[in-house]
Amino acid sequence: MAISRAKKAEKVQYLATELADSTTAIVGTFSKLTVSQDFALRTVVRNAGGKYRVLKNKLAERGAKGTKIEEALKGLKGVSSMAYTSGDPVALAKALTAWVKDNAEFSFKLAIVDGRLLSVAEIQQLAAMPGREELYSKLLFLINAPAQRLATVLNATGRDLAVVLGQAVEQKKFSEAAAS
Questions:
Q1: CA gap 12, 94 in Å, rounded
Q2: Are residues 24 and 108 located together in one domain of the fold?
Q3: Which of 6, 25, 93, 143 has its CA 20 to 30 A from that of 82?
């Protein structure tokens, strides 16, 4: 069934507004995807903080004009779909890569992150990177480590003194000194 020009213009405008603030897009293709698989894919993308759309190639190219992902959508061929986000690109790549391992019907075409075009191999590398939260926790650990070491060293002197005094009391060293 053909789509009217007004409906196409509406779809292009809607896509353009959604893609305006997107910094990451992962484009893929699929064949023989069941409804339950499609639902599971959309859920995975949503849980990773992204959105998912099946694209009409020409409409997607028009809708992406002036956005950071414009280059990724030029010249698409065949069945295409796109997961996109303005959030963490690693989280989206991890979620999609994990889903694709279980569903061979879907494969990656390309991706774009902050205006840089990525190949399929680079998508796999992106998915292997630590996520934003993990990087933050490692950074905070590195910032906290020197202060924690300083506190340990400062506490060690008092602790060592307490151990020596405790051993002296056990060996009754103080009672002999008090008696003399």
A1: 28
A2: yes
A3: 6
∠ CA 131-134-138, rounded to 5°: 140
What is the token pair recorded at 109? 């075409």
In this structure, are 29 and 82 located in the same domain?
yes
The pLDDT tens digits for 138-169 are 888 888 888 888 888 888 888 888 888 888 88
| Same domain assignment for residues 119 and 37 | yes
CA dihedral 11, 13, 15, 16 (to 10 degrees): 160
The gap from C-alpha 127 to its chain's centroid, in whole angstroms, comes to 8
Q: 122 is in which domain, residue-wise?
A: 5-129
My answer on whether 143 and 172 are in the same domain is yes
* Six-digit token string for 143: 């910032």
Residue 52 — pLDDT band, cuts 50, 70, 90? very high
